[in-house]
Structure prediction request, 330 residues.
Amino acid sequence: MLQLLTAVFLLLACIPAARCGVTTVSELSALEGRSIAAPCHYDPALAAHVKYWCWGIFKDTCTMVARTDTAPSDPRVSIVDDPAQQVFTVTMADLTEDQAGWYHCGAEEGGIWSKDPSAAVYLSVVHGMSVVNNRLDGEEGGSVAVDCLYSKRYRDIKKSWCRSGDPGSCQYTGPEGRFDSPSVTIADDRVGAFNVILSKLRMADAGWYWCGVGTQKTAVQVLVTPRPSTTAVPVTSTPAVARSPEHISLESQLAHRHVLGAVVVFASFTLIVGMVLLARKIWQRHKREQRRRQGEELKARLSLCHEDIDEASIIFLNRDSQKMDIFGAE
Prediction:
């Protein structure tokens, strides 16, 4: 309630100034021993002004922590201005509980009658633990990892990983900050985080677990999906039988037979055509030889009948029979 009333007061205090040219988040929270970053946005008109970060309930009486025109007195605090983006960022590292409280982002405007544009933010520094991701998704046979964060006071305390509802399942880090088994590995950095890796996931590993340190615990849910099947299911059994070595050999023999049959048919056809052409050629040669002999016989007959032909008035030559008829003159 006190924090809410203070925030209302700070908001009302900004109204008389007619403008609040700096804005930021209203609350920040971090584990003890870790760090926070606060972005403070401002109007373009404030780009060349000095920016600052101060601690205290009221901005007019707050204690200066960091300014852009001087080096911070605390090396754990830094302030960086980016006029191009119109934002300056304050980072505080290795936080302690006594650093919790109200802070102010401000831009120094100067002048006795004007207030600096500023914005207030409440920083909570707590001890305990948290996780980066409280839901882990893995595949059967695979692995998942979770980062469990803890505050500074728990650095030297052993860390644990337990299945929810089963206290006997807890595994703890040893003096060296580690625990190793075929399915679970825990490694503590002794600064502010320990990493848990679950390997060779089974469907039975799905469920809720606890990251633990001392009396502090944070819940983590592990989800496991079945491994995709890689076995191909044949459409029918016939193709597998058809492609057996015996069938492949039979198909090869049948193919050879088809080729051999085609070759035989082609060779037979070629032989028949060749024989027909040869017979035709022999027949034509026989016909020419027959005409030649008949011509020679005709010439011989003409030679014998030379005198009779002179006295004949008509000679008829039968072309088909090569017979000659001579009719004497009247």
